[in-house]
Predict the structure.
Amino acid sequence: MAIENIILKISSEMEEKKIKILEDSGRKCREILALYEKEAKKIKEEMLFAAGKKNKEEQERKILIANLEIRKEVLSEKRKILDGVYTEVLEKLRNFPHERVIKIISDKLEENISAGDEILISAKYKDNFPKPANVKIKFDDIDGIFIIKKAASEVRFSFEELISELKEKTERKISEILFND
């Protein structure tokens, strides 16, 4: 019986070791599983945070683009308003009575002519036009109101150029007054 007792004892010890190994491996599995679950939860939170941050950045970018488009449209409309104002002024100038235009031409000529200059004046202002002394005057079909031909240069005067100069001088101030945001 001694052999049977030894086998039984060995068998019993093996069973205890087997149970202990299974318990240890189960405990280690649970620890490893808990560690990986904790790591997976952390990764999930990081991914959700990154996705939320990316989504927020995307929304902010879309809002910024939309605001830029709105500002662009507003500026475009403001530009249309200003252009309309200058167009209206140009039309009023074009519809001035001839006497008033002749007065404007005379004043501008006095400021800009020298003896010996040649002046071309639009033929539509020929009637009742005072002729300055010491200059040659021709009435012709020209674009604008008059041209002063000097020895080395030319001075053109038209309502369009007058409006262009007016724009340069006044546009910024008008924009500030009308569209002060």
Remarks:
- Residues 1-95 form one domain.
